[in-house]
Amino acid sequence: MAVQKSKKTPSKRGMRRSHSFLSEPPISIDIKTGEKHLYHHISPKGFYKGRKILKNKL
What is the pTM (predicted TM-score) of this model? Predict the structure, then answer.
Protein backbone atom coordinates (compact mmCIF):
# COMPACT_ATOMS: atom_id res chain seq x y z
CA MET A 1 0.00 0.00 0.00
CA ALA A 2 1.32 3.45 -0.90
CA VAL A 3 2.06 5.75 2.02
CA GLN A 4 2.76 9.44 1.59
CA LYS A 5 6.20 10.67 2.61
CA SER A 6 5.01 13.90 4.22
CA LYS A 7 1.81 15.78 5.02
CA LYS A 8 0.15 17.70 2.16
CA THR A 9 0.17 21.47 2.60
CA PRO A 10 -3.14 23.38 2.65
CA SER A 11 -2.20 24.88 -0.73
CA LYS A 12 -1.73 21.48 -2.37
CA ARG A 13 -4.90 20.19 -0.70
CA GLY A 14 -6.79 23.13 -2.19
CA MET A 15 -5.36 22.45 -5.64
CA ARG A 16 -6.48 18.84 -5.41
CA ARG A 17 -10.01 19.86 -4.44
CA SER A 18 -10.31 22.71 -6.94
CA HIS A 19 -12.63 20.75 -9.26
CA SER A 20 -15.20 20.36 -6.47
CA PHE A 21 -16.61 23.85 -7.00
CA LEU A 22 -17.16 23.92 -10.76
CA SER A 23 -20.08 25.99 -11.96
CA GLU A 24 -22.85 24.76 -14.23
CA PRO A 25 -22.05 24.61 -17.96
CA PRO A 26 -23.03 27.69 -19.97
CA ILE A 27 -26.24 27.34 -21.96
CA SER A 28 -26.79 28.85 -25.40
CA ILE A 29 -30.10 29.58 -27.14
CA ASP A 30 -30.45 28.69 -30.83
CA ILE A 31 -31.26 31.63 -33.12
CA LYS A 32 -34.01 29.99 -35.22
CA THR A 33 -35.66 27.49 -32.87
CA GLY A 34 -35.06 29.19 -29.51
CA GLU A 35 -33.97 25.88 -27.99
CA LYS A 36 -31.43 25.70 -25.20
CA HIS A 37 -28.23 23.70 -25.75
CA LEU A 38 -24.58 23.62 -24.72
CA TYR A 39 -22.12 25.90 -26.51
CA HIS A 40 -20.48 24.22 -29.53
CA HIS A 41 -23.15 21.49 -29.55
CA ILE A 42 -26.18 21.05 -31.78
CA SER A 43 -29.68 21.65 -30.42
CA PRO A 44 -32.03 18.69 -29.87
CA LYS A 45 -33.74 19.41 -33.22
CA GLY A 46 -30.41 19.31 -35.11
CA PHE A 47 -29.67 23.04 -35.49
CA TYR A 48 -26.24 24.68 -35.01
CA LYS A 49 -25.77 28.45 -35.31
CA GLY A 50 -29.19 28.78 -36.96
CA ARG A 51 -28.54 26.17 -39.67
CA LYS A 52 -30.02 22.69 -39.94
CA ILE A 53 -27.21 20.15 -39.51
CA LEU A 54 -28.98 16.82 -39.01
CA LYS A 55 -31.93 15.80 -41.20
CA ASN A 56 -33.14 12.86 -39.09
CA LYS A 57 -33.90 14.86 -35.93
CA LEU A 58 -37.45 16.11 -35.34
Answer: 0.51
